[in-house]
Design a protein that fits this description.
The chain is of the alpha+beta class. The protein contains three helices and ten strands.
Length: about 170
């Protein structure tokens, strides 16, 4: 189980408020990295997101623990890192809330296995939102994969789109 993860945004408070809204959580300041926020969901599992200012990166610092440094302004903020987040709101609500912030959002089919609402936070990086029906599809798929004699075959029908093979 992943209890919390960190993300970054040009508007950390705005991104934190979006996640608190779709998760049913609360936003609090995160002083270890000034200008950062945490979103907590009272679910008994410690589910949380840390939202840092864009350009924040963590650097090893030995026993005292990691420190935060900032990349220069204008650095590319795209990343292959993304996550799926189950929420209790309908896909239409997720779309409306993302679009209200000016962010791209799409309902996508993942190879016929399950659906997600792709939300492009600040039109820069991806989070896959799973409203209840989509979460059920995903969980059914994940459970089926673990029960297959050849789990590698589960994704054989999910091939890359042509643009995936292009250079960035």
């Amino acid at each position: 189980m992943i209890h919390h993860l960190s993300i970054s945004a040009e508007d950390p408070k705005g991104a934190a408020e979006f996640f608190a809204d779709v998760m049913g959580g609360i936003v609090v300041d995160f002083p270890p990295n000034p200008g950062s926020y945490m979103v907590f969901k009272a679910d008994g599992r410690g589910t949380a997101l840390e939202v840092y200012p864009a350009g924040s990166v963590m650097v090893a610092n030995g026993a005292p623990g990691a420190v935060f440094v900032r990349q220069p302004d204008g650095a590319d903020r795209r990343s292959p890192t993304h996550f799926a987040l189950s929420v209790d709101v309908a896909e239409s609500e997720v779309l409306a809330r993302a679009r209200a912030k000016g962010w791209d959002a799409f309902i996508c089919d993942r190879g016929g296995h399950f659906h997600v609402v792709e939300v492009w936070i600040e039109n820069t990086w991806l989070v896959e939102i799973l409203p209840p029906a989509f979460a059920a599809e995903y969980l059914g798929f994940a459970d089926a994969v673990t029960g297959l004699a050849d789990p590698n075959a589960a994704l054989d029908s999910h091939q890359p789109q042509v643009r995936t093979l292009e250079h960035a």
